[in-house]
Amino acid sequence: MTQKFIETADFIKSKIKNLPEVGIILGSGLGNLGNKIDAEVKIPYSNIPNFPISTVEGHSGQLVIGKLGNKQVLAMQGRFHYYEGYNMHQVTFPIRVMKFLGIKTLIVSNAAGGLNRNFKAGDIMIIKDHINFFPENPLRGKNYDQLGPRFPDMSKPYSQRLIKLALEIAKENSILVQQGVYIGSSGPTLETASEYNMFRIWGADATGMSTVPEVIVATHMGIEVFGMSVIANTDKPADAEKGTTHDEVQDVAGSVEPYMTKIITGLINRM
Predict the structure, then answer these.
(1) Closest CA to 169 of 27, 264, 37
(2) HSE-CB for 271 with a 13 A CA cutoff
(3) How are beta strands 71-77 and 177-184 bridged, if at all?
(4) Is the pLDDT of residue 240 over 60?
């Protein structure tokens, strides 16, 4: 398996002059942030050896590598989800490749459903912790000691240093942000009212269908992680009664993209 990581990383290296320092995963409705990158190269996933292909609407399905702020970055415009039929090793394959490219920091974003009663659609939530409610752990199976330990510590998967920096940047730019716990589940169905209640009782503030597997694998390999969610909807009566579509999720995420971009760019400049 490690040979595939090396093969894919070597292919990407052959297309660029400067190695990226920061990896970014752009979630639903947030793909346009990749257009802010001064791109050295854009590589469709279909052209990359061993890469899966994103099938979700709103995910472009390409790597964008270039300058954002003062650092070289690699951005994924489109991620891979468990509900698409991929196994966890496929879902997290790009994160393994990032390690072989020398990436030391990972920024993850997603669109999520709000569980916290104080949240509203359009809020930005900095992820301070997560709950893994997927039916499978991406580290299940043979462990590769050169990548990380068999039993990695997950007590602090999200960098306290980067959270502090992001809060400072948000305050300086008058951007209101929330903080909370993200719970990841398999999807593709959106949650029932009872599931919302259960997740809330467990201590989650937002729910989605991604992020957790990628963060587990990044933490396993010692990559520093920062995560943000756009609250696309809530289970408050007004929202719950009309339901939610994927198009609406993308629209809400797109509306706060400029604020997300400002925080992410500021974070990259201060790392």
Answers:
(1) 264
(2) 24
(3) unpaired
(4) no
